Amino acid sequence: MSGAHRKAEPERDQMLPHRPVRETTAAAPRAQLTAPSTQPPRMNLIPRDVEGLAAELESYHARFNHLFRRKEQRQWALRYMEGQMMELDRKSIEPMALYLDGGNVQAMQQFISEGAWDDSAVLEKHQEIVVETLGEDAGVLIVDSTEFPKQGSHSAGVARQHCGVIGCVANCQSGMFLGYASSKGYTLLDRRLFLPEKWFEEEYRKRREACRIPEDLVFKTKTQLAWEMVEGLDRRGVVRFSWVVGDELFGRSVRLLDQIDGLGRCYMMEVPLDTRLWLQRPRTHSPEKSGSGRVPTRECLAPGEPPFRRADELARELDAGAWKRFTVQEGCKGPIVAEFASVRVVASRERLPGPDVWLILRRRVGDDPDETPLRTFLSNAPAETPLSTFVRVWSLRWTIEMAFEECKGELGMDQYEVRGWRAWHHHMTMTLLSHNFLVGLRLKLGDRAPALTVPQTMELLSVVLPRREFNAEEALELVRYRQEHNYAAYRSHRKRRRWKR
């Protein structure tokens, strides 16, 4: 998560997706809310269904075949996805290649690090398939970043920066991602590696060259990368969506908000508690010239007009009846309940009144509402938008965190051992393809196994993938290979340390 992120709420980790948002009585205690069913989940899958899953993966991969120009690229694209879905302790290239039937470490490294395949074309095809699987006109795009802790200083974009995984400043890479969510499910659509500004300084030239970072690349902030992905998706017109959501990092950027509004899309972005707003549009005027100075050209608030108000101040002044209680998710440990309110306000632009927007307020349900955490959001949605719509959109915001967890925990998204610019983007592209395949497979099996999750889907798939079987001689050869590899690494590190002295 980015530096502006707040810590993810503990209950979010236990969310069960795709449950409808529902309003409940504001005064009702938590214990009276409807709990998830205690009946065992229905599972009508049979062994024959599992045996056919490997063929499903091959059919899915075949849809991308024409985008890999060489036979070897097509072969290793499938093998890479198979490796990501195998039950392995670590899913970097070497263990995946060693345990895949017909695996080859060097060939797989070549495919990811040096392969001349166009991952932008692969991503465009991926996005088309996402629409087939999850697409809805009311779909939600989620902009967010996630970090990858790293040792050393030679991986592309690595720097000491805020690392949401650890919760502090640490040595890491940071990736910007675009997620998609609808009532059917969620996945990831696009990715960008964030390069800190210092990576464009002259002292980093050799590192940029070593990582093969494009020479024409210029520094872009995370909000600029987010806009680049959203605008590109809107321009292509393939993905169906109505909303763009994000956390404070993106809500602070009024330029990004106005850009999204200019596309005719709705945003719902978290903003700081001290965001400046007006309840009614104040009058402005151009001050008259006084003395011998220049004629004023900048407008300002007219005399006697009320000053702006902070978002948290407006929240404290709301009547109790303005807050509505919603069950936003059914969690593994019970329903997740929060109170929401919405107020029509005027946003601030350079200390002057800007567009009419919604201020959406959210607080947890606790013993003392005045002491529960408050979250504030702005939205350019139409004036007639009901509060329940904002609650639904907010509840889908967290799906990108769930996608990150699944990609890291199941597919080895964060276990890559590559340094280059191209290799990072190739690995992330393959991870996005693998995740969406699992999402689509879960939906396909959903009628007979409605409680099936993405990790459980992968668990079923992993038992039918072509895993290498070792005999005694091959096992000894594998141990020799690892010992030689470890010794070579030791000599390399030792030589480098002696040289530094």
Structure description:
The protein is an alpha+beta fold. It is 37% helix and 21% strand. It has 16 helices and 16 strands. The strands form two sheets. Strands 1, 2, 3, 4, 5, 6, 7, 8, 9, 12, 13, 14, 15 and 16 form a 14-stranded mixed sheet that branches. A two-stranded antiparallel sheet has the order 10-11. A hairpin with a 2-residue loop joins β13 (324-331) and β14. The longest helix has 29 residues, at 472-500. The protein is globular, with a radius of gyration of 26 Å.
Task: Give the SSE layout.
Blueprint: E1 15-16, E2 22-24, H1 47-51, H2 53-62, H3 71-84, H4 93-99, H5 105-113, H6 119-134, E3 140-149, E4 159-163, E5 168-182, E6 185-194, H7 205-210, H8 222-236, E7 243-246, H9 248-251, H10 254-262, E8 266-271, E9 276-278, E10 284-285, E11 300-301, E12 309-310, H11 311-316, E13 324-331, E14 334-349, E15 352-364, E16 374-379, H12 387-397, H13 399-411, H14 421-444, H15 454-462, H16 472-500
Parallel strand pairs: 3-7, 7-8
Antiparallel strand pairs: 1-13, 2-13, 3-5, 4-5, 5-6, 8-16, 9-12, 9-14, 10-11, 13-14, 14-15, 15-16
Radius of gyration: 26 Å
- The residue fraction in helices comes out at 25-40%
The coarse overall form would be globular
Low-confidence stretches: 1-20, 25-38
- Total strand count, please? 16
Mean pLDDT level: 85
- Percent in strands: 15-25%
Distance between the termini: 38 Å
- Total count of helical runs of at least 4 residues: 16
Give the biggest beta sheet. Answer: 14 strands, mixed
